[in-house]
Fold:
Amino acid sequence: MAFDGIIAKSVINELNSCLIEGKINKVFQPNKNELILGIYSKGKNYALNICIDSSNCRINLTTHTKPNPLNALNFCMFLRKHIIGYRIKNIYSIDLERIIFIDLEGYNELNDLTKQTIIVELMGKHSNVILINDKKTIIDSMRHLDSFSNSNRDIMPAREYVYPTSTKKSFLSIKNFNEFYNIIKNSSSNELTKCICNSFIGFSTSFVKSALSIVNIENNDFSNNSLESLYNYFKKIINNIDTVSLNTINIETGLFLSSSTTNKIDYVVCKEIKRNFLDVNFFIDDFYYKKNQNEIFISYRNSILKLILSYLKKYKTRLNNINKKLKECNNKEIFQLYGELITSNLYRIKNTKEDNIVLENYYDNNNLITIPLDKKFSVSDNAKRYFKKYNKLKNALEICSLQKQETESELNYIESIIYELENSNTVEDIDNIYSEISENNIFKDSFKNKSNKVTKNNKIKESLLPNKIELEGYTIYIGKNNLCNDYLTTKLSPKTDLWFHTKDIHGSHVVLKLTDKEPTKNIITKCAQIAAYHSKAKLSSNVPVDYCYIKYVKKPSKAKPGMVIYTHNKTLYVEPKNF
Structure:
């Protein structure tokens, strides 16, 4: 959603209803782009959140706590000195600009009554928080800007505050429809959305698109009737911003405002909600909190995934090199043959400086065979070199075979971690995966510092609990990650329970709890479908799922988390399904 001038006006109206004469008693700055003012007003405590992040700039009341740094940032310390104890006298904006003025009044260090104003400029990458005195002189700002930072204004202490200019027109100054019509008609764009957003202050693309949907106008419809309907709708919205007749409409992708007199909306993703006290503020608070959590989750997951993929590439390269070496080892017998044939015919061979020698191969009906020679060495030395190369490849075959087995096991484990990451839904899930890989020798080079080991282990204990569902009177457990799979299969479940897992496909361990009754074919099939759904083959069809009793599932010594072997299993082919 876009925090445009319309939303800003509505937020300001709600803030005026609860914060006027409120006293600022706390100032926090969680990070360089956010500021939280603690305000006591009318017997209640409020937290006013101001964010100047370029993609999430906003001002609203918040109920979500944020970490307070141990060492306060400079601007936070400055505000604590200058505005704590001051009362809010007025909150307003000019036209539909996203520039909010918060007038303050209070006593300074000399006990003189003074007036100050906090200016919150929400202008994307140019957003800022500025404190000025009653003479419009800047006392300080969150960001210092001047001509050297490509700013058209100086935002520096002791400079006069200059209101930013705009080439767009104010909709509030439009007197009638004809004036609105002429402005749209003179626009160069052939889309209504772009015309309106480029012509008027405070109109965002999402707001205009929502208005077009409500009034039922196409984006390329510039007819008189359509434009007049749109003009009347905008006018009704703006005139009702500060009244209770304005409702919010909750959309899957954000929020916009509508008049309460609007007819029922035939729009699938919209749901009209009755406006309550501070409704817009707390909607914005929840929306941006979820957005921020999602951004943190995606960033966290991608950083771990990038690390895992680098190891995946590394081990795939290692496996390719091992396979090349094994391919060389497959020819080791020919070198043994060359050595034997040369040794058995030494009495017949005179020292020669030829590149090769032709001998009878008594292993192949005495057919002639050409054996390459190195002219730098004698014939007997060539035979010794062939035997040495044979023994070297023979030893290499044993070592490479073992290395291949270990590398394939490690690759299999890395791919299981990637599957976990792709199916994680919360930051806690990523924390559990991080805890798991940080203690694995595969990734030891990336996790040399384990100072937080105790904390992580506490998180691991919480992550051991599997997901639980009830189905047809049975209890089914589903593993969430490799550590949880191990705990579920080897510790939590008795030997009489049924265990399910996709055949040769990464996925969660699924356990069907059995008491006295035997499982029906239907519940076994459903458990297999659940196991297929919680696997890498969830988008496939006819997925093979193995199942057996827990007593036949074993975890080999030193096996990676989540890795088990099993016997006495049966296989079902099912369609993935979640119940």
Confidence is low (pLDDT under 50) at residues 260-275, 451-460. The radius of gyration is 37 Å. The longest helix spans residues 279-329.
